[in-house]
Fold:
Amino acid sequence: MKRRRGPGRPPYNQAQLALLVEVAQKFQAHRDAHGCDVEQAAAELGVCRASMYNYLRKRSLPGVSVLQKAAKLWDLRFVNLAALVDHRRRVKILDERQLTLPFIEALRTGDISVGHLERKASTIEFVVTVRFAGR
Structure:
């Protein structure tokens, strides 16, 4: 079920497809619950009628601003919002210390030790030792 996003655009990935389905279901559920037609729902979100039909038919993803407006006005929560993050975008590294951050998730309690406590008037200095290798 790979859908093309338009000329020259890559097909939706699995997370985006899940968000397509979630948006269509929640938008339709809101319409059913409140008895509003497509034109009313589109006007509330500030999109054109054609865009609303595309969202309901799982043909296109709304932008972040439309999802935020739907969440606020219609009290909706979207589970698959991570699909809107472009994982191919490169992160600019400002400092080599940023490279270690993804490894923090894999740490266990025994991999971290705190030592060399020194108390001053308004600060506390201490050394944190983190072991990343050697399991």
Notes: The chain has a mean pLDDT of 80. The chain has two domains: 14-84, 96-130.
